[in-house]
Amino acid sequence: MRSRHGALRISLLGEASALQATRLHAAALDLSGCVQVVPLDTLLHHAFRGPHPQASVAWIAAGGDAGALGTLAAMQQGMPVVVPQEAAYAELVTPGVTGFRVPADSSVTVVAEVARVLSDASAQRAMGEAAAVRAARDYAWDRFVDTAATLLAQAGGVAGTRVTRRPSLTPA
């Protein structure tokens, strides 16, 4: 595998102890030099590039909030994303545009979709760019703050209110 995909870099997000079996499989495939295990929060803090160049594709297997946050963080960094179709956050990914949705229990399908992304550099770039655009347009922090402020105002009885605020770390 390494001889066919010399530039392959695999970054596994999660706890090192939970991913030990994956490391053993990587060693058996002579991929140890390509695999790194990194905590999810490094992706969330934009330090994911780490010792390797940016990943070519993000395969998100985590569930719940961790999976959703990991998906959005990868998209913001311009990575095509492969997610389990059963996950609540799968709707973040537009199949064939920003990444792929795959059955969680089908490793063959996951590998096929990751291989498809890796086999076409221009399609990979286009998907990564589309992912970054979608994350910035639909899931940016300021949009979240605006929506939350509007919903809170409406819940407080101010019907038809649209609140627009810029996030700030300093008191008003």
Automatic annotation (TrEMBL):
Coiled coil: none
Domain Glycosyl transferase family: 67-132
Superkingdom of origin: Bacteria
SUPFAM superfamilies documented for this protein: UDP-Glycosyltransferase/glycogen phosphorylase (SSF53756)
A Pfam family recorded for this sequence: Glycos_transf_1
GO molecular function: glycosyltransferase activity
Record protein name field: Glycosyl transferase family 1 domain-containing protein
Organism: Gemmatimonas phototrophica
